[in-house]
Amino acid sequence: MNIWDQEYECMSRDELGQLQLERLQATLNRVYRNVSFYRKKFDTIGFEPEDLVELNDLQKLPFTCSRDLSDGYPYDLFAVPLREVVRVHSSSGTTKPVVVGYTRQDLKHWSELVARILTAGGVTADDVVQVSLNYGLLTGGLGLHYGAELVGASVLPTSVGRTERQVTIMQDYRTTALVATPSYVFIIAERMKKMGIDAKTLTLKYVMLAGEPWTEEMRQEIEDRLYVKATDNYGLSEIMGPGVAGECLYQAGMHLNEDHFIVEVVDPETGKRMEAGEVGELIITTITKEAFPLIRFRTGDLCSLEYQPCQCGRTLVRMSRVLGRTDQVIIVKGINIIPSRVGDILEEIQGIRPPCQLVVERADYLDRLTLLVEVSEDLFFDKMGEQRSLVDTIREKVAGGIGVTPRIQLVESGSINREEETAPGVVDRRKLSQ
After folding, report:
1. Is there a single domain that holds both residue 232 and residue 316?
2. Which of 260, 294, 327 is the last residue before a domain boundary?
3. Which of 12, 75, 227, 327 is packed most tightly, with the most Cβ within 10 A?
4. pLDDT tens digits, 266-323
């Protein structure tokens, strides 16, 4: 099995620990000197970078959360002057977008780490990689694109949408590796069926999946329908984007690039560090990021860690697939949605904040989002023309605000059932398993 960077991916745990310590010390000095947010945090607890003498001392430092990143909008948490930032991406935040900057060195590291996970998933310089992820301010498309080019593969930047064209390109250009969200792979598979195309006639060998929760059952379905090997990958815009972790072809957990990230799993309520194999919230500290370093960032993702070496020869810790969330964020079609943001949009439309509820369902492995909005009795029963106009307005505004187009359902005042909610304002009917 190919390994992109034998030196770091197969490093002994002792050597890796020493490397992490040296890089962490350098990062702490960087953020203390250049980021007022962290300087204030450290000063409050009486901590100086020189106080960290072993990796376990990291637990003395406070967590960084998504709200901290939103409050720093746009550039307050940058650790370098803007003239050194050569790329900017952003993602949704709790109040304002989270803006992430990259120096030239950051982009170099990013491409290297994506090259690692692509290689782990079977990609070589002989492959044709079709990147069917969004290109833009979100990190997915461009992150995978540059990593695939570094591997030496031929890259098809097809983005998402125009599915029939995607299938035609897959046929004509002889795609061997597809990168997409699980839900979009199923859309592609269904379109192939309608077009009368037998997946056995394709040259497709690998599918790299990321961007949304999926299950082992879905993996089996994808592999059976497309005759491929499907691997899981993990990344988040706040940390870097894709390339944080990825499965190898043994499919035994995602190898996490520990020479660039220190990871912990903690009890989300107490912050106490969990043991290997125990499920908790994933905490990530970046140790090579120049423009946007983060210390003990709370990802909100629930998982467990496995430290035993993998059969592939890599010694990096492996994380399980994401088993859930600790907060109210829901992921639909690869997009993080904050329910309170939907309420803000409705208040902007109507001048008041009506009771509402997001309902997420999964049919034939595809996610579907419905927004229930309570309206007054007279509008609900008597004013059909106003109803249609309001539905159209809500659909357009909400889609523009969260990046996903929901089905809008106006309901009678007092009819929303809160007992069904899996989180405040959310009913998630998808049945996820490890």
Report:
1. yes
2. 327
3. 327
4. 999 999 999 999 999 999 999 999 999 999 999 999 999 999 989 999 999 999 999 8
